[in-house]
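User: Hi! I have a protein structure encoded as tokens and I'd like to know what sequence might fold into it. I'm fairly new to this, so please keep things simple.
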């Protein structure tokens, strides 16, 4: 389920980026970038809702829903990490020196409070 939602989330993200980049800005022309004739762009009549505006709204709502869903699913206590228990590094025992007598136990470090 998480994999499916992640794929949908990436697709919605790319779609949202493309839809936002396709829209025209409020200035809508080269003169608006430098302040020439910009009064109508700021206080003029508002244009009607276009298909791109509707697609942006739908894509942004889907983006938020998939983000929240992924966050909730990943934070559930039963879900493990990406690394499975089998793939984790095995715990190895300390290796004794070749010169050491195998009958003698390995030296242990004393607890932190006993060190002098």
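Assistant: Happy to help. Inverse folding works backwards from shape to sequence: for each of the 116 positions I chose a residue that suits the local structure. Here it is:
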């Amino acid at each position: 389920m998480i994999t499916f939602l992640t794929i949908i989330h990436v697709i919605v993200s790319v779609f949202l980026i493309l839809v936002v980049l396709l829209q025209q800005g409020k200035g809508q022309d080269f003169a608006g970038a430098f302040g020439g004739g910009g009064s109508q762009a700021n206080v003029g009549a508002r244009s009607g809702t276009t298909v791109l505006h509707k697609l942006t709204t739908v894509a942004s709502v889907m983006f938020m829903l998939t983000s929240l869903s992924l966050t909730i699913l990943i934070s559930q206590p039963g879900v493990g990490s990406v690394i499975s228990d089998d793939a984790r590094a095995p715990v190895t025992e300390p290796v004794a020196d070749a010169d050491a007598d195998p009958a003698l136990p390995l030296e242990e470090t004393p607890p932190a409070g006993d060190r002098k």
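A useful reference point when you look it over: Residues 1-10+50-76 form one domain. Feel free to ask if any position seems puzzling.
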